[in-house]
Amino acid sequence: MSEIAERVKQIIVEKLGVEESEVTPEASFTNDLGADSLDTVELIMEFEKEFNISIPDDQAENIGTVGQAVAYLEENVK
Amino acid sequence: MSFKRVVVTGMGALTPLGKDVPTFWKNLVAGVSGAAPITRFDAEKFRTRFACEVKDLDMNDYIPRQEARKMDPFTQYAVIAADEAMKDAGFDVEKLDLDKAGVIWGSGIGGLKTFEDEVMNFADGAKNPRFNPFFIPKMIADSASGVLSIRYGFRGPTFITVSACASSTNALIDAYNYIRLGTMNVCISGGSEAAVTNAGVGGFNALKALSERNDSPETASRPYDKDRDGFVLGEGGAALILEEYEHAKARGAKIYAEMIGGGMSSDAFHITAPHPDGRGAYMVMKNALEDAGIRPEDVDYINTHGTSTPIGDPQEIKAIERFFGEHAYQLNISSTKSMTGHLLGGAGAIEAAACILAIRDQVIPPTINHFTDDPEIDPRLNLTFNKAQQRSVNVALSNTFGFGGHNASVVFRKLEA
């Protein structure tokens, strides 16, 4: 697992209160990890803070699973 | 149409004197002070560096962390107090008509810490508008009633009352009215506050409202003492389960007392100072007793607003003497704020609880920290100084007055079957 993936996992565990084992690449924030729309907005903000980047709203809308978040961050975090 | 009767069937309290009703009441009767140096933030540069905080509070003992972090502390306090009250009331929730169950809560400010944290974060972040999505739902004052409504599935009237330090008394009056009208059968009422923050202490310091007796926090709240120098900020709250009498009887509920009246008035005078003649205080007691349909001579105990401020305390006392006449010298008066500090919007709720427990146990909790008589206060009054007093308590009155000149009082009586 990449360093980015590990940090993403820790944020999700912390914010959504789920077990590490549940945070698989396919897991959907809303369908599998119990997040509602506000939790999802907060998660995106946490990613922005953790990785010191800005994720535009139209990009954020496409981040619905753990794997999508990791892929976006791996591509955009310098 | 005739009004229904309203009784108290459950109580919960999270206070500077204890985290549940039994501990709160034991310490209140024993005359324990809840004041200590501030731990919630670094108060070193503040004129007042002490408060009555809820002590040894580990939120994990009450609310899962993921839920708790979506609540401001004033809502967390509401949940803890309401959980205790609901358990105490012993409802079979399956049998409750949830459409006729409500939540009417009081808070003077709402989510002050949330507001402060978010705005400070904004200011520290080069003013980039990065606000947490939970900022608004955590901060708005009605969030406590919303969270409680969702928690218990209560679908009747749910809202918050805001009238500064009278807030939770207004909540109790509204709950009482909707139950006696038949709109609700059951209501979680009360109030909570969590204002021991930078902005809370700094703001009240700017008003010169707080005691600055930093060398002796535990004796700083001294209502009616000649050397009182301001109120001591408190935090926490209390929940009362108000229930329609026949509804309570039908399910064999334990009944603490009957709520028999509520009164309101306004000073129409000044945004922070009470009217020096105590005319608002006079009218609110008159209105409460008229609503209850009792005479002044029927009152055994008054839990006063008595915040320990130089100008606030005498005006209430003058109003009591004027309204009660000779009976003012027969009844017991005390300010439990001498022990709990001032819970602002939560004050009316914990003081209503104190009145109800005084009726249950036939004992008056004291006004502690009396050292020097104030020549402005008539020594014939029994202000229950320093030690609790046993006496027959059939009727108790609780007064609360808020900034803005809002006054609200409630009356409880021992249940006559």
UniProtKB/TrEMBL annotation, chain A:
One GO cellular component, as annotated: membrane
Main subcellular localisation: cytoplasm
Record keywords: Membrane included?
no
Q: Where in the cell is it found?
A: Cytoplasm
Q: O-(pantetheine 4'-phosphoryl)serine is carried by which residues?
A: S37
> Boundaries of each Carrier domain copy?
2-77
UniProtKB keywords: Cytoplasm, Fatty acid biosynthesis, Fatty acid metabolism, Lipid biosynthesis, Lipid metabolism, Phosphopantetheine, Phosphoprotein
After translation, the protein is modified as follows:
4'-phosphopantetheine is transferred from CoA to a specific serine of apo-ACP by AcpS. This modification is essential for activity because fatty acids are bound in thioester linkage to the sulfhydryl of the prosthetic group. 4'-phosphopantetheine is transferred from CoA to a specific serine of apo-ACP by acpS.
Q: Name one GO biological process term.
A: lipid A biosynthetic process
Q: Pfam families from the entry?
A: PP-binding
**Function of the molecule:** Carrier of the growing fatty acid chain in fatty acid biosynthesis.
The record's family statement is:
Belongs to the acyl carrier protein (ACP) family.
Q: What is this protein called?
A: Acyl carrier protein
Protein source organism:
Rhabdobacter roseus
Instruction: Give the taxonomic lineage as stored in the record.
Output: Bacteria, Pseudomonadati, Bacteroidota, Cytophagia, Cytophagales
The gene coding this protein = acpP
TrEMBL record, chain B:
Pfam families, A to Z: ketoacyl-synt (PF00109), Ketoacyl-synt_C (PF02801)
A GO biological process held by the record: fatty acid biosynthetic process
Kindly give the PROSITE patterns that the UniProt entry links to this protein: KS3_1 (PS00606), KS3_2 (PS52004)
Question: Which pathway is it part of?
Answer: Lipid metabolism; fatty acid biosynthesis
Task: Write down the superkingdom of origin.
Answer: Bacteria
Q: Catalytic site residues?
A: C165
**Positions of the Ketosynthase family 3 (KS3) domain:** 3-414
Which GO terms fall under molecular function for this chain's record?
3-oxoacyl-[acyl-carrier-protein] synthase activity
Q: What class of enzyme is it?
A: transferase
EC identifiers of the protein: 2.3.1.179
Supply the InterPro entries for this chain.
3-oxoacyl-ACP_synth-2 (IPR017568), Beta-ketoacyl_synthase (IPR000794), Ketoacyl_synth_AS (IPR018201), Ketoacyl_synth_C (IPR014031), Ketoacyl_synth_N (IPR014030), PKS_Beta-ketoAc_synthase_dom (IPR020841), Thiolase-like (IPR016039)
As its record notes, the protein acts as a catalyst of:
a fatty acyl-[ACP] + malonyl-[ACP] + H(+) = a 3-oxoacyl-[ACP] + holo-[ACP] + CO2; (9Z)-hexadecenoyl-[ACP] + malonyl-[ACP] + H(+) = 3-oxo-(11Z)-octadecenoyl-[ACP] + holo-[ACP] + CO2
Q: What does this protein do?
A: Involved in the type II fatty acid elongation cycle. Catalyzes the elongation of a wide range of acyl-ACP by the addition of two carbons from malonyl-ACP to an acyl acceptor. Can efficiently catalyze the conversion of palmitoleoyl-ACP (cis-hexadec-9-enoyl-ACP) to cis-vaccenoyl-ACP (cis-octadec-11-enoyl-ACP), an essential step in the thermal regulation of fatty acid composition.
Assigned protein family: Belongs to the thiolase-like superfamily. Beta-ketoacyl-ACP synthases family.
Protein name, entry field: 3-oxoacyl-[acyl-carrier-protein] synthase 2
Q: Which organism is it from?
A: Rhabdobacter roseus
